[in-house]
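Supplementary Text 2. Reproducibility record for the structural model of the 270-residue chain.

All settings were left at their defaults, and a single model was retained for analysis rather than an ensemble. We include the record here because the model underlies the residue-level annotations in Supplementary Table 4.
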Amino acid sequence: MSSAQLGSSDDKLQQALLETIRQNGRLLDELQAARRREEQLIDKCFQLEENLLQYVLGDEKRSQLLKALIVDQNDKDEHLKETLQQGSVVLQQNNRNHHATTTAATSVSSAQDTDQDTEEWVQWQRVPHYEVVVNSKVVSEAFVANNASVSFIREDVVRRAGLKPNKLNPPARFRLLGSVQPVVVAETVVVPMRIGDYRGQCPMFVYQHIRSEIILGASWLQSERVYWNVDFMLIGPKKIRVDPKPPVMVKKSDPRATMVDGPVIIERLN
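Retained model, structure tokens:
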């Protein structure tokens, strides 16, 4: 092969190599653009979900309606209890004509056991809860409340996990939806925690009288870039997926069967 042919062959190889590099560059640009579009879509989902929750969950009238329904249900339960007591008195009076007192008591007890065995089970209508391991020691429960500006943890969980809280001077004051007086919190603590495959730390305010052992608020959602909905959440830049705990089933006579979780709205005042 002549030197001219060799030179022509080298030129073709160089052109092919340059074309391959250009194609790889275009593919890389398209991949980066796709990732940017994905992040923009996730941010839009965050915004839409926050707007929806502010519209639905921020309605105080809905909270008042829920309270009215609970009060109405309690009144119905009291009326049903009085009716059952009256029926029990009539039943005992009729049984005295045919049986001894001990036989009647045994029959009533047996009937109650049968009713309990055949009682219907229903799902407890509470917000999705997640299993959280605190300080590699304590298994606890948490739910997400993006209308709570910060996160909270119960005092007993802090104590069992061996964490040392810090005193606040002055104490923090919060306003809770449905509470007349502000809530005063005197301590904070940094909580090492594991949720599924996610491991991290979260500063929390220590307060015993909260609905769950831990409340994960908006500050944690933002700092960890969490995408959250009622079915699952994606945590961090790696989008670690965590699913909530299975639904809790309770007997229909259990007071929790008629409870419905209302919105959790917590606003810091100072």
